[in-house]
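ok new one. same drill as before - structure tokens go in, u give me an amino acid for every spot. 175 of them this time. try not to just spam alanines like last time pls lmao
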């Protein structure tokens, strides 16, 4: 059976560069895994410990169920104001008490103008959540908008190599 991968886009824009990278990665995976793109991190309510009780808010319960069913998690995100987009961080905050990222293999693509700070911050968050993430499954794509076209083809040779290498490292143990 193919590995199930849940995909989170840290961008909520309709024509998101990260969305194009996600499309490109799904194509590069060439049916080695089954990808489910989580519709949008904005569907989750603002994290509030008072709401983090049983039963969880319906969308939170659905999100956690998708995470539990997934063999791995792919996150593609821009950086906003030198940090992690709030909507993505909010989604991750909902996984603290449920521990749904524990031992979950994670591939992280930070496709942004700069992006290094968001990547470093996410690495700390994902590590404390006990996700399985190493430098081999992380990619930083700077000036990302210039490196993927509207047909979701990664046009920059180095970015393509980096993404392919990380994808192979991510999927190999899930094979
Ligand atoms: C409010 C805002 C703040 C931004 N701050 C940063 C930043 O700190 N670092 C960075 O690399 N890019 C920053 N950007 C640029 C984004 O990286 C760029 O727009 C990227 O393409 C967004 O990803 P998306 O196309 O998937 O939405 C910012 C963009 C916006 C709208």
């Amino acid at each position: 059976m193919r590995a199930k991968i849940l995909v989170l886009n840290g961008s909520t824009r309709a024509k998101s560069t990260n969305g194009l990278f996600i499309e490109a990665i799904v194509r590069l995976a060439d049916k080695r895994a089954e990808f489910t793109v989580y519709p949008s991190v904005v569907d989750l309510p603002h994290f509030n410990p008072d709401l983090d009780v049983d039963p969880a808010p319906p969308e939170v319960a659905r999100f956690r169920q998708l995470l539990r069913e997934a063999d791995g998690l792919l996150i593609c995100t821009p950086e906003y104001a030198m940090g992690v987009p709030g909507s993505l961080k909010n989604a991750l905050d909902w996984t603290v008490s449920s521990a749904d990222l524990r031992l979950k293999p994670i591939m992280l693509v930070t496709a942004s103008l700069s992006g290094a700070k968001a990547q470093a911050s996410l690495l700390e968050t994902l590590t404390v959540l006990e996700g399985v993430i190493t430098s081999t499954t992380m990619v930083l794509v700077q000036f990302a908008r210039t490196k993927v076209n509207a047909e979701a083809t990664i046009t920059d040779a180095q970015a393509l190599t980096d993404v392919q290498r990380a994808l192979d490292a991510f999927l190999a143990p899930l094979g």
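Residues 11, 13, 16-18, 78-82, 112-115, 144-145 surround flavin mononucleotide (CB under 6 Å). and btw Helices lie at 17-29, 58-69, 86-93, 116-128, 157-171.
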